[in-house]
Amino acid sequence: MTSHVKLWKDRVGLVDYDTQIKEVRCQLADQLKVLDLQLEQKSQQLQDLTDYLRRRGEIENEYARSLDKLAERFTSRIKRKEPSSHSVAKVWLALLSQTRQESRDHNGLSESCSNFLIQPLTHCLEYTQRLAKKSKDICSQLQDGLLKVTTELQTAWRTYYQYHSDYVCAEGKLKEAEKQEEKQKQSAAKKLERLIEKRQGKVQEINLKCIKARNDYLINLGAANASMNKYYFQDISTLIDCADVGYHQTLSRVMQAYLSRRWRTQKNLSTGLQQLQGVVSGLEQSQDRDLLLRDNYNSFSLPLRFTYQPHDGDQVSEVSGECEMRCELETRLKQIQTRLKAVTLETEEASKNMSAAQCSLLESVADDDLEPGGGGSCPDDGTENQTVKPSVARRRANLQEMENLYITRVKEYLVGSSLVSKLQAKHDLLKVAVEKGITSAFLTQKHRSMRVRKNHSSTSLMHNHKLFSGDMLSFLQASGQQIPIVVESCIRFINLNGLHHEGIFRVPGSQMEVNNLRDAFERGEDPLAEQRYDLDSVAGVLKLYFRVLENPLFPIDSTDQLLEYAQIINEAERAAQLKMVISSYPEPVIIVMRYLFAFLHHVSQYSDENMMQPYNLAVCFGPSLVRGARDDDVVTLQAQINSLVKSIILQHESIYPNQSEVQGPVYEKLRFKTMSSADSSTGMSAGQTRAERPRANSSGSIDQTRLTCGPAGGSITSGGKLMLQIPIGPQFKARRAPSPGLVRRE
């Protein structure tokens, strides 16, 4: 009965995947049908427009001939009569002159419709059909690759189920042997012990195979989802664009030439022509592509994401990098990194080549002449017609060559970008698994050293009992610290590791980690000195410290005055008024404020990467630093508080006194990192690295000490130390390194 239940569950999971993949196959088939239907629609549109222009040319020619006969008939009558200077006669002469001009204009429109406008449409129909066919071939290849990925997913899934079933069976046999050992007498104990040892080895062996199969299954699962996302979000749009290259441009140029003739001959129909002009100007390839995708949503919408389906009783849903699997995953990660880097470079080059080929193809399409005076031939001159024919043939041959080149470039780009997407998904999963394995081993090795540090720091417990939820000024006076240890340590850690971290201070961290850090600081320890924590958790501890203070950083009695001055439009006057209020605070509070806002300004300089502009930082810190007299003031005054904190971040140098005015620690940016050869050979940690710090002037800029750097971006000093130059500031965002904030004490 048990085996039947397991078989039923296996079949349910298989049916789920089979059903999902069957739906994907049906959807892919529908896509090819939609693309064929789209080609038929475009071909029919081109053919209809060609027939319309041909018939319009015949009508305009007949109309022009009728107008010319009409004008000649009445002109001959006037010639028989004596000339007259009456106004009615002048009107009559002007009317006949206008009729002859109108006849000439309609004759020119007839020639354009019958000759010059039809030829580009014929060429467009030819290369549109060729491009659509080749694009469909590429689409079929991509779909085959997509189905191949799903097949690999199914295979990995079945392998994983098989090994896990074997593991459960072997584990059950082991438990059964252990129960028999307990029941048997001592005479058969040795034999059962050997049996148990054998089954234990079997369980371990099958467990390793099960872990490996599960890892392969999860990796293929990620790759399949990534391939689906890549195909539906990027490849389909690219293929539709590929099939439509030149189609919209040709239609646009033909209609523009047609409109030009119509504007010359029918100015009285300006309203109708403006409407048509608006329609022609609205020809947009990307817009038609989006409309096609929207109208056929069921065919081109992304299918449901492949979800992880664990076997009965298996609770692991991540790639495991522990124990024996860690070395294998690290080797595999390095291989994928090398391959991913090479394929990414190739794909970027393929993208550039595709863009260049597309531009060349569009230029070839634009070579068709739509005007008789634009380099083409005149229909009345047989000699010029003979000289132009070879040029037209060459242009058509060049057009086909450009088409083949463009199709090749598109195929290279799509295949390469699909491979990049699949490799990136596998790389990310492997990287997370390896990092978790390394972190687990690191925490085990550091466990003993943390015990020693806890004993060493227990002597300062008496000073930290009022660190959180207490009065900051009283704590500073009792402990002798100028910057609270939690503020200094968190800022140093974030400056060293988190200036480039997206969403710092906005994304919440682990509540358990935040509580652990808080408890460690309360015990007088500095947990961030040697052990690494999640950046968002460290940022949460810093915000928590200011939020739970008994008295906020900005005294409540000055809140109304600060909010009033923050509304001043003139920046210099606003900074002066805020400085006047802040100068009345106790010096220890001013020192902490100066240190904090210099750090927040430094964080905002990397907003192009961490997405934390001064306003975003103000939203995160405003309610913790500034409070109203009543509890509900935080909500009603939220916008004004955010504006105040943003202004202080931007103008902190003008608001807070410099070190010569108020002695105490100041926040500084690290410019150079130095590391001796001995330190580099022993793997010196980030917390142990020595730092040479430039002094900041009153404007916050750093003295530009220039060094002669070698190819590696550094230089060797006379003391045998390697000096690495690390530029500071958003303008060096492509090359900069994280720089820790340090405290300079007088």
From TrEMBL:
Region (Disordered): 369-393, 678-713
Residue span(s) of domain F-BAR: 15-288
Domain Rho-GAP: 470-656
Keywords: Coiled coil
Bias-annotated ranges (Polar residues): 678-688, 696-707
One Gene Ontology term from the biological process aspect of the record: signal transduction
Annotated Gene3D superfamilies: Arfaptin homology (AH) domain/BAR domain, Rho GTPase activation protein
InterPro entries for the chain: AH/BAR_dom_sf, F_BAR_dom, FCH_dom, Rho_GTPase_activation_prot, RhoGAP_dom, SLIT-ROBO_RhoGAP
Coiled-coil residue spans: 167-209
Annotated CDD domains: F-BAR_srGAP
Protein name: Rho GTPase activating protein 4a
Record organism: Scophthalmus maximus (Turbot)
